[in-house]
Amino acid sequence: MPTVTIHKAKTNLSKLIERASAGEEIIIARGSVPVARLVPVGVVKGKRKPGSMKGKLEIGPEFFEPLPDDELAGWE
Predict the structure, then answer these.
(1) How far apart are CA 16 and CA 28, in angstroms?
(2) How would you classify the pairing of strands 33-38 and 3-5?
(3) How far apart are the C-alpha atoms of 42 and 76, rounded to whole Å?
(4) Is the per-residue pLDDT at 43 higher than 90?
(5) Of 20, 25, 26, 66, which has the fewest beta carbons less than 10 angstroms from its beta carbon?
(6) What is the pLDDT of residues 12-37, one digit of tens each?
(7) Closest Cα partner for 13 from 24, 22, 4?
(8) Residue 4: its H or E element
(9) Can you tell me the distance from the alpha carbon of 72 to that of 76, in angstroms, rounded to the nearest whole number?
(10) 17 contacts: CB under 8 Å, gap ≥ 6
């Protein structure tokens, strides 16, 4: 893992972000003391699509029945 100073990180931020987005982890140091780590965010999944689980889940009628008193007391 390469280490860069804060000054170099500010000067070369675009290049460091490009390297991080390619999978590299970069340590940012104040002098010789590491203070931060620049890492890639990871894979960004596609947008959520409303209704994509339609027909895949089933809720039984017991879901709508009142909870027993002992279980309800645990929620209070």
Answers:
(1) 10
(2) unpaired
(3) 40
(4) no
(5) 66
(6) 999 999 999 999 999 999 999 999 99
(7) 4
(8) strand 3-5
(9) 7
(10) 38
Question: What's the residue count for the chain?
Answer: 76
Which residues, at least 6 apart from 4, have a Cβ–Cβ distance to it below 8 Å?
A: 12, 16, 26, 27, 28, 29
Query: How far apart are the C-alpha atoms of 10 and 7, rounded to whole Å?
Result: 5
Round to the nearest angstrom and report the end-to-end CA distance of the chain: 50
Q: 50 CB contacts (<8 Å, ≥6 apart)?
A: none
Match 């008193």 to its residue by tokens.
69
What share of the chain has pLDDT > 90, as a percent?
A: 67
Residue with tokens 């070369």: 12
